[in-house]
Write a structure and sequence with these properties.
Structural class: alpha+beta
Strand content: 5-15%
CATH topology of the largest domain: Nucleotidyltransferase, domain 5
Protein name: Transposase IS4 family protein
Helix content: 25-40%
CATH architecture of the largest domain: 2-Layer Sandwich
Number of strands: 11
Distance between the termini: 45 Å
Amino acid sequence: MLGAWRSHSDYQSFLVENIQPIYASDKNRVLQFSEALSKLYNLDLDVLKLVLEPYYSNTGSPAKNQPEVFRSFVLMSLLKCHSITKWVYMLHHDDLLCYMIGVSPDNIPGVGTHYDLINRLWLEDPDIEKDRQDSLHPFKRKPRKKLAKNQKLPPRHPGIIQKFVDLALQGKIFESRPEKLLQQIFADVAVRPSANDGILGDIEKLTISGDGTCIKTGGSPFGIRTCDCANKGIFNCDCHRKFSDPDARYGWDSYHETWFYGYSGYFLVTYNEELKFDIPIYLRLVEAPRYDGVTAIIALSEARALYPDFVFDKFIGDCAHDNYPTYHLLNKWNIKPVIPLNKKNKNNSKYQGTIKINENGIPVCMAGLPMVYNGFMKDRNRIKWRCPFATGKVDSCNCKDKCSSSDYGRTVYTKPSSDPRLFTVIPRGSDEWKCEMKKRTSSERVNKRLLNDYELELSKTRGKKRWSFWIMIHSINIHLDARLKKSKFDFISMLDGLLGRVA
């Protein structure tokens, strides 16, 4: 059962009360943790109790210090400590760190307590998880064939994206996914408080970008042999082996142009133009070889269920998302797609109309010039285009008399329903399209922050459970960064004021 839960206000009082004497006697000691103290002081974990209560029994010994253990992980992430054993050792030798997580030096949570919280937040049958961990698995050799520059692994199963789109339109999502509780915690502890602070902007008109990233596992791709082939002189066998990370797979890193062993992370991110800050709102870890276009359908479905009060207005993705099922789904959900055309899909257009169009889906006039975007007509669900000469985009036109005698110039319309891939609501190449497309890199910058700023891969973690947990913890810290930047709160300045009033 869930034990006594110290409220956020009580934690704040505890923190100030215990940090004040240390600050008064050794100011520099406290100053080095200034940013971490400011973030922890504002990290409200009261909502976490409501999320966790259903997952604890009503009987048995109470689980103690759960908010403190969670806060301990957040501080680990901030201080870039990657070993729980090492971290607990540090707590035993530094009273300041104990007070920062909300415990006294004689009541420090142990290593097992930390691991227990990770296990409890992963909604998978422990017996199934243990059986998969202990059982033998096929040995997969590293692929030798390399893909072209910036080329991504194609979907392993033809038509799989359409199948997932059909399920999404039926409202079916992976309710039994083991990371569901981690996603809910991230939403309630980080995303919603940020939304309340205005950091996400208008939640009824959100622009989100989605992208995948490669995450190398700490487990070995070679595994541990249990066969006796070596005794028989066979040193290159393909027998089943035991792996420390049985869920890891080989995937292709298109940026570094190399194969990697691990997982693919897929994140949905929104960009705050005022703060110039990238904010993750949804996190998912999948198999390394999974195509981003497939994961995007799952991500959008789960994100809409996770945030029923959010309205996603635009979705920005790279060319891996350029396929008709994705456009169809986004249009059904009234989400404007901002996705560049995949060069490999150049000849896959479904448009069979009489209007001549260029590679960006823009009508071309008799003179061979791209026509000018003149707005989207919601009442008739069509895009209006006008003559480039009549709108002043060109100074002269040899085809004016042949084309139209009207001063308004020739007008044509395209309908997204005719070809949702070519005739997007925000026309390709328009100023609005270019402006929105610049935000696509926000998801890549979040990937960079997780991998580089928070040193995700240096933890050498094994298993989807622990990778998912640490991605959530690091992402919470990204939200704390944004909230601190917006509020400009400084814990040290508050302490100076308190000490001044006491004096």
